[in-house]
Design brief:
single chain; mainly beta; Hypothetical Protein Aq_1857, Chain: A; four-stranded mixed β-sheet; three-stranded mixed β-sheet; 2 helices; 9 strands; globular
Length: 122
């Protein structure tokens, strides 16, 4: 009787689900310290707009069952489990423009956006 053992595969480290730019991390720190104290930003994706999908952000007290918790630059965000496949490799930024300011997403999975920029498709 001959026994063989399968070679042990080394598992490669998975890339982070999401990353934060310095600007996004700083803005979230300020929000967490002031008006949203005790809350955490939860990021999801909903069906919306002319391209099909839109980013959805809301404040929650804790992660739900199956949610992913991402910590980058010392700041936590929660990612809706159903949005994980759409967000792998995404970088969240915070931009200040002449007439607006807000969080933006640099998502390598996006294949296109609608004309107004509200929704995207993969």
């Amino acid at each position: 009787m001959s026994t063989t053992t399968a070679p042990t595969r080394t598992r490669r480290e998975l890339p982070p689900l999401m990353r934060l730019t310095d600007a996004a991390a700083e803005r979230l720190r300020k929000l967490y310290e002031t008006g949203q104290s005790g809350m955490t930003l939860r990021i999801g994706v909903n069906t919306k707009g002319c391209s099909g999908l839109a980013y959805d952000m809301n404040w929650v007290e804790a992660a739900g069952p199956g949610d992913e918790v991402v910590t980058d630059k010392g700041v936590r965000v929660i990612v809706d489990r159903k949005a994980s496949l759409f967000l792998i490799g995404t970088t969240m930024d915070y931009e200040v423009k002449a007439l607006s300011a807000g969080f933006t997403f640099i998502n390598p999975n996006e294949k296109g956006r609608c004309g107004c920029g509200e929704s995207f498709h993969v």
